[in-house]
Known about the structure:
Elements: E1 3-5, E2 25-27, E3 31-33, E4 40-42, H1 67-72, E5 79-81, E6 88-90, E7 125-127, E8 134-136, E9 171-173, E10 180-182, E11 211-213, E12 220-222, H2 246-249, E13 258-260, E14 267-269, E15 301-303, E16 310-312, E17 320-325, E18 328-335, E19 338-342
Antiparallel strand pairs: 1-2, 3-4, 5-6, 7-8, 9-10, 11-12, 13-14, 15-16, 17-18, 18-19
Amino acid sequence: MSKQYPVLECLSIILCTAWCDSAGMTCPDGKWGCSDGEKCIVLEHVCDGFLFGPSGRGCKDDSDEDPVMCSQWNCTAGYWKCRDGLKCIAERLVCDGIYHCNDRSYVKSDEDPAMCPQWNCTAGHWKCKDGLQCIEERDVCDGIYHCNDRSYVKSDEDPAMCPQWNCTAGRWKCKDGLQCIEERDLCNGMENCEDSSDEDSDTCNCTRPGWWICKDGLLCISEEWVCDGTDHIGDADCRDGSDEDPVMCAHWNCTAGWLKCKDGLQCVHESSVCDGESDCTDKYDENPDGGCSRWNCTAGYRKCQDGLQCIDEELLCNGLYLISAGNKRKKYFVFDKYLSLSF
Length: 343
């Protein structure tokens, strides 16, 4: 059930004030109200061991970290309570080889060698051969050691295991069968496989859906990088600059989920439209046909009360305000009755 707390004040200079009124502030489901009534925070930040700081993630009065309250707090789904009962950490962080709990002991409870062998790694994670550590499945057989096994060759890069390993979604297995790399790194002009198979002529024929061959025929890039006005792998996506050729871009159809700027030369992602920051060179993304007042924010975004700006729903009631200032966005942290700028 939503909780209601008094609001100290609403700032008239703030654009996104749809959730602020003089009568009070209602914390939406999935958020927790600070004791001072100034702020709602996500449940995952309650008893997470972080006091209020520059990130602004917790309560200013630190009521979300009160030891008496935390000792009685039930961690939200997907979180695990440290042995001292004062901190909740994400289950994916338990037995990951890094200390996250603050227990007053040499070995913290989340990395207890007596507990970790019985711990079931969370979905998308894989247990190292010694049974003491969980790593992300995407890190298995990626050519980098992640397990801390006491052996010369770590279990996540075992040459006897990797040929049978199925690369996770979005990754590609090198021809030697020993390494998985990101699909986006295929044919990008840089050798990512130890055997260089990601850049050989058989692999780089640009016949895979969603890829585009540069005019010089030397490189394949994602279609989302074509006519996007930016570079991703150096001075340009294509070495010959053909992916940003104005003649070609004028006839290019943006990929699904992308919007073409009015000059016809650039595509921007729809999540960047009406976000208070110009991405189009001609600034069309902040004034599309019909104006931002008629633009429907993409999934996961909420429109501000003035109807002119979309913000990420994760930013709602987090104590930070996003204010449009020309073509730049600035974060403002609220401290009592004055503002501290962070750029």
